[in-house]
Design a protein that fits this description.
DUF112 domain-containing protein, about 130 residues, about 75% helix, transmembrane helix, DUF112_TM
Length: about 130
């Protein structure tokens, strides 16, 4: 990519693909060397190349990367806190369903997952009327 193209689309450079190519499309040996130097392991280089290919297809298919990055950051935190709450409740998952604030957030999560279907049903009902 040229610098002008990058200025038009600031989201156009995925961090994983930036480890392989520079902005002027020249081969970047520093990204591969950096992924190898982290643990002296060729698996890291393969993982970096695989993530770069996945990132490239995400950009081509216009899949947003922000939710994936958010999940990668918040996932381990949520898992450790889930483990901690299960230890405090001695393995009982009923603590997630007995407290009002927990029920509120569970209902909010279910509503946010079902919202596209509800919106589509409501729009079909309005069109039929």
């Amino acid at each position: 990519m040229k610098v002008k193209e990058t200025a038009k689309k600031p989201y156009g450079i995925c961090p994983a693909s930036m480890t392989i190519w520079n902005a002027d499309q020249t081969y970047n040996k520093k990204g591969i060397l950096g992924s190898y130097a982290l643990r002296n392991n060729m698996f890291d280089v393969g993982a970096m190349l695989l993530i770069a290919v996945i990132g490239y297809f995400f950009l081509k298919l216009e899949i947003p990367i922000a939710p994936i990055v958010l999940a990668l950051i918040l996932g381990p935190l949520a898992e450790s806190n889930l483990r901690r709450s299960l230890l405090l409740s001695q393995g009982s998952a009923s603590t997630f369903f007995t407290r009002p604030i927990c029920i509120f957030f569970l209902l909010l999560a279910v509503l946010s997952l079902c919202w596209p279907l509800l919106r589509k049903a409501l729009s079909n009902r309005k069109k039929a009327a």
